[in-house]
Amino acid sequence: MKTETLQEKFFRVARNPSIAAPKGFDANGIHSGIKGKKKDLGLIRCEVPASAAAVYTVNAFQAAPIKITQESIGMENRLQAVVVNSGNANACTGKRGLEDARQMRDKAASLLNISPHLVGVASTGVIGVYLPMDKIHSGLEKLVRVQEYDPASFAEAILTTDTFAKQVTVELNIDGKTVKISGTAKGSGMIHPNMATMLSFITTDASIKPDILQSLLWKTTDDTFNMITVDGDTSTNDMVLVMASGLADNQPLAYSHPEWEKFQVAFQYVCRTLATMIARDGEGASHLVQVKVEGARSKEAARKIAKAVVASNLVKTAVYGADANWGRVICAAGYADPTLTPEKIDLYLGPVQIVKKGTAASYDEREASEVLNREVVEFRLILNSGNCETMAWGCDLTYDYVRINASYRT
Fold first, then answer.
1. What separation, in Å, do the N-terminal and C-terminal C-alpha atoms of the chain show?
2. Who has greater pLDDT, 164 or 115?
3. Which of 102, 153, 205, 272 is geometrically suited to a Cys-Cys bond with 29, CB 3.0 to 4.6 A?
4. Which residues bind substrate (predicted)?
5. Which of 107-116, 172-181, 398-407 has the lowest mean pLDDT?
């Protein structure tokens, strides 16, 4: 008999995802002139002030938009709109950068006829260059006043070196009401745990208070966005931002709500899907690498080991070359946690056991190589030291990564 998964039990994945699918939201994206030809300015707006929550990069050089968005959300933990530009990060731009980000926020608020503190801003692109504010201002007027919004254009407008738009929408029933959660993200390079060059925007029409939403986002980020890596670089502009309109008309969600688990699982699915899409779209990548650590003594230890393995350049290049060089995986785990007991370690590459009790297992090299040629390469590292487990995601390291980043500005 087939076992029902949590996804099948709790929610449905929409075939046509859209950041504007939840009630009360709309979105649009245009070309404003920051980039040569591609769309570079986007807007998400809500009919009502929405509960808002966010997590931000831990980089000491937080970009100006991060600080302005923190300022906005800090007023009453609500937002009604978010303006995003790509092609220019507005990072390391000093006082002028802060003023430009504030002008970007205030101009959007004026055009939307809402209070400035209800607008968040985000930027992504080249660091150390001032925003072309004339293009931003004229672009915002065009963006807001267009007769018909196009949500798919928003997902396109936030991209930089990405090769595809990243979107997901799920539907679930809470209190007999249909609740939707949608997300879209950008991210391809400068991706490393504890945020990265990634922007992710999530909307939902669920009724949920800002403090509960913030707590859920913190916890979910630790298991999703903070468990991905492409190249080990943590950027200046990274942010995950959530808005909840409350227009689904469910009873306010909280930990005590009888259907809280449904929402939590669906929300985590949205975040995990976006996170793995970012890892798969790593600059020049040809494989998604998934590392599952089981039997760890603590969740923290499991996370540290999984991140180390998925971030290892030697593991990445072995995957690219379809070389089952398991010593690189074991090595990364060992320096991540020197207290490991080697004689307890088992390692699987897909279904193939390649290490048993710390030494090479008997396996078919051709079968292992076949697994390494799949689009998704899975490592399962069993520590046999406890009951905790976690998952991390990354990608292989190819010649194209060097090519893309060697000429990023030119």
1. 57
2. 115
3. 153
4. 160, 186, 197, 283, 405, 410
5. 398-407
> Does the annotation flag 113 for ligand binding?
no
Q: Please determine, for residue 381, whether its predicted confidence score (pLDDT) is greater than 90.
A: yes
Instruction: Report the distance separating Cα 264 and Cα 217, nearest Å.
Output: 10
Catalytic residue among 57, 124, 161, 197: 197
Compute the CA torsion angle 139, 143, 144, 146 (nearest 10 deg). Answer: 120
Residue 63 has pLDDT above 70, yes or no: yes
Query: For residue 196, is pLDDT > 50?
Result: no
Fold of 6-280: L-amino peptidase D-ALA esterase/amidase (3.60.70)
The listed CATH number (3.10.20.340, 3.40.50.10320, 3.40.50.720, 3.40.50.300) that belongs to domain 288-406: 3.10.20.340
Q: Please count the other Cβ atoms lying within 10 Å of the Cβ belonging to residue 351.
A: 9
Q: Over 50: is that where the pLDDT of 51 sits?
A: yes
| Half-sphere exposure at residue 242, Cβ-oriented, CA atoms within 13 angstroms | 30
CB 241 within 8 A of CB 52: yes
Largest CA distance in the chain: 68
| Strands 41-56 vs 239-244: parallel, antiparallel or unpaired | antiparallel
DSSP summary character for residue 91: -
| Domain regions of the chain by residue span | 6-280, 288-406
197 is catalytic: yes
Q: Is 405 annotated as a binding residue?
A: yes
Q: Is 330 helix (H, G, I), strand (E, B) or coil?
A: helix
Residue in 138, 123, 108, 110 with CA at minimum distance from that of residue 33: 138
197 annotated to a ligand binding site: yes
Average pLDDT for 244-271: 97
Q: What was the pLDDT predicted at 88?
A: 93
Question: Is 283 labelled a binding residue?
Answer: yes
Would you say 39 is a known binding-site residue?
A: no
The two three-digit tokens of residue 197, written as one number = 């060059």
